[in-house]
């Protein structure tokens, strides 16, 4: 599915703005919503009103708005596209059910010609935020009490989270357009592929460099050589563009422009190579999370976050724990960030709850969870959406599954095999400490070992000497098992309350956060096969209430409002030196 683009053939029109909203179950599809209030789109609905019940709401809510259709629009194919609706959407136009989509973090679209009329049309979207044992993320849901217990540590924000767009094409249209290439030495051979629906007799592709200088042309199915290409590099992005034009008897029927970057990735001998140079990942696990907008797209915030990361000397992040917005991924391409792109497979741990803790003995995850089908679908949608992004350098198939429990290998093996048929980038599953090297059954499938470790916080709290010893032993244990796999720390962190200081460097103080990170860095620096550090978390973020969460997770190195904690100075110094 292509990202919406306006050009000489395609018209786009955004349906973002204030929509009508209601959480009543009584909806007459033929009539406007009654007792509706106004809700901004794109955004989560949870934190836009003062209503606590709505903030914590579990179930289906309704959104509604009108849109206008002109007579000439119906001479075209008319498509309604949602960037993401969390977690399930059922779409109705003029009272008729159009279709539905499950999965809260990937786009979907429907051709709607058969449902619309010239003039004003009514659009209703029923959005459900119920998660259970079959969904990604996973949650324990009790239908009788309507109680939902997330198996993940972030707020279950819901709503129409990303842009809604109406667009037109001709009835012959480009459905997919992917840029494949081989990069060897001083040459790139680019071989785009496209799926075109409807009759056409010619498809041509024109190439441009980043200064819009025309490089040449090829036909679809053919290839094009770029001599001495400027490579896309970490924090030094170069983007080319390919423009496809589809004709019938000389008449232009459709066109689409795709940017692309040229770079190589190789994982070998305990290193991660980008363009044949070992790279060290510096950065964060993040969240799409902010006051009022919740998990809704917030481009100004994304821009600020990227500028802050660059200022710190960071070069990477992980889309913990779900695919981030398409606009954010495009910005990452342009800025040169390395992205570990994660599917929303979080909570694949039957007994996980921030409120109740994890029982070490429970071993029923892979019997209880029925997420396999949703997982495969989510991987497919992720790769389809993101494969053209040069910033994506690795796919993460899950965060902290119960990798030590019986059935974990059998669950993941077919998913890895499936992913390798879709794309050739390195694959990982982010490992939880309960699934340590002695017990884990999944990491043999991974190209890179991504570890989430909390020595000095959940383990060895307030004892950084012991924390360092345990961390070193952990690293060495993994290395002995998998000497050729590089290790990236994808999470490590300590809850830190902004403004709390301590003469005795007590946990929760800004001093402790500083010491905690310094201790971890000292250990990482001893091992050349540790090739990255992504701190948990970039900023404080909202979670469900819990005794161990002081109004959210406070492991940010920035507050939720992006005020820096002390440790930011340490990072700045370390990361700028590390190039
Ligand atoms: C890890 C999770 C992450 C949590 C973090 C924490 O991957 O989502 O927020 O721990 O406890 O288990 O802060």
Strands, total number = 32
Distance between the termini: 37 Å
Strands across the major sheet, in which order?
25-26-27-28-29-30-31-32
Mean pLDDT: 97
Q: How many distinct domains?
A: 3
* Low-confidence sequence ranges: none
Reported for the largest beta sheet, the result is: 8 strands, parallel, barrel
Tell me the strand percentage band.
25-35%
Small-molecule components bound: beta-D-glucopyranuronic acid
CATH architecture of the largest domain: Alpha-Beta Barrel
| Class per helix and strand makeup | alpha+beta
What does this structure look like?
With 579 residues, this protein is α+β, with helices and mostly antiparallel strands. It has 3 domains: 17-162, Jelly Rolls, CATH 2.60.120; 173-178 and 180-260, Immunoglobulins (Immunoglobulin-like); 265-578, TIM Barrel. Helix content is 18%, strand content 32%. The protein is built from 9 helices and 32 strands. The radius of gyration is 24 Å and the shape is globular. The model has no long low-confidence stretch (mean pLDDT 97). Bound molecules: beta-D-glucopyranuronic acid. Residues 153, 321, 399-400, 452, 491, 536, 553, 555 line the site of beta-D-glucopyranuronic acid (BDP). Beta-D-glucopyranuronic acid is lined by residues 153, 321, 399-400, 452, 491, 536, 553, 555. Pfam families: Glyco_hydro_2, Glyco_hydro_2_C, Glyco_hydro_2_N. Keywords: Glycosidase, Hydrolase. Belongs to the glycosyl hydrolase 2 family.
């Amino acid at each position: 599915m292509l990202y919406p683009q306006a050009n000489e053939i395609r018209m786009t029109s955004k349906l973002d703005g204030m929509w009508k909203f209601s959480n009543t179950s009584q909806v007459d599809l033929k009539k406007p919503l009654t007792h509706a209030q106004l809700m901004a789109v794109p955004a989560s609905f949870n934190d836009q009103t003062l209503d606590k019940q709505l903030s914590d709401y579990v179930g289906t809510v309704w959104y509604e708005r009108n849109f206008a259709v002109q007579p000439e629009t119906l001479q075209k194919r008319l498509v309604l596209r949602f960037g993401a609706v969390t977690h399930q959407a059922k779409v109705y136009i003029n009272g008729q059910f159009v279709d539905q989509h499950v999965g809260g973090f990937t786009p979907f679209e429907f051709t709607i010609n058969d449902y619309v009329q010239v003039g004003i049309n009514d659009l209703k979207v029923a959005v459900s935020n119920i998660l259970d044992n079959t969904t990604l993320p996973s949650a324990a849901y009790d239908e009788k009490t309507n109680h939902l217990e997330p198996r993940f540590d972030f707020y279950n924000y819901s709503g129409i989270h990303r842009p809604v767009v109406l667009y037109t094409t001709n009835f012959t249209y480009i459905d997919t357009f992917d840029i494949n290439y081989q990069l060897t030495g001083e040459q790139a051979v680019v071989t785009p592929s496209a799926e075109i629906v409807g009759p056409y007799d010619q498809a041509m592709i024109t190439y441009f460099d980043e200064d819009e200088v025309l490089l040449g042309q090829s036909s679809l199915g053919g290839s094009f050589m770029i001599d001495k290409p400027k490579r896309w590099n970490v924090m030094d992005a170069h983007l080319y563009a390919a423009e496809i034009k589809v004709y019938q008897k000389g008449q232009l029927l459709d066109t689409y422009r795709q940017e692309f970057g040229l770079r190589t990735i190789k994982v070998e001998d305990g290193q991660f190579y980008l363009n044949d140079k070992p790279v060290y990942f510096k950065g964060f696990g993040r969240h799409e999370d902010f006051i009022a907008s919740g998990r809704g797209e917030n481009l100004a915030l994304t821009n600020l976050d990227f500028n802050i990361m660059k200022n710190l000397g960071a070069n990477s992040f992980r889309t913990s724990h779900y695919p981030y917005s398409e606009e954010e991924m495009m910005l990452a391409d342009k800025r040169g960030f390395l992205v570990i792109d994660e599917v929303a497979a979080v909570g694949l741990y039957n007994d996980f709850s921030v409120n109740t803790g994890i029982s070490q003995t429970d071993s029923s995850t892979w019997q209880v969870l029925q997420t396999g089908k949703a997982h495969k679908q989510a991987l497919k949608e992720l790769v389809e959406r993101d494969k053209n992004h040069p910033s994506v350098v690795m796919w993460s198939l899950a965060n902290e599954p119960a990798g030590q429990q019986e059935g974990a290998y059998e669950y993941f093996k077919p998913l890895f095999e499936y992913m390798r048929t879709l794309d050739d980038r390195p694959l990982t599953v982010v490992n939880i400490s309960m699934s340590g090297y002695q017990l884990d059954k999944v990491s043999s499938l991974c190209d890179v070992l991504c570890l989430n470790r909390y020595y000095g916080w959940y383990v060895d709290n307030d004892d950084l000497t012991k924390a360092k010893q345990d961390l070193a032993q952990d690293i060495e244990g993994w290395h002995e098992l998998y000497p050729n796999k590089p290790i990236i720390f994808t999470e490590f962190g300590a809850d830190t309350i902004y403004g709390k200081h301590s003469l005795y460097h007590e946990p929760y103080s800004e001093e402790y956060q500083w010491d905690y990170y310094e201790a971890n860095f000292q250990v990482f620096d001893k091992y050349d096969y540790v090739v990255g550090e992504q701190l948990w978390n970039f900023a404080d973020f909202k979670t469900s209430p819990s005794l161990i969460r002081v109004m959210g997770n406070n492991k940010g190195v920035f507050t939720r409002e992006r005020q820096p904690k002390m440790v930011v100075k340490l990072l700045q110094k370390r990361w700028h030196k590390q190039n």
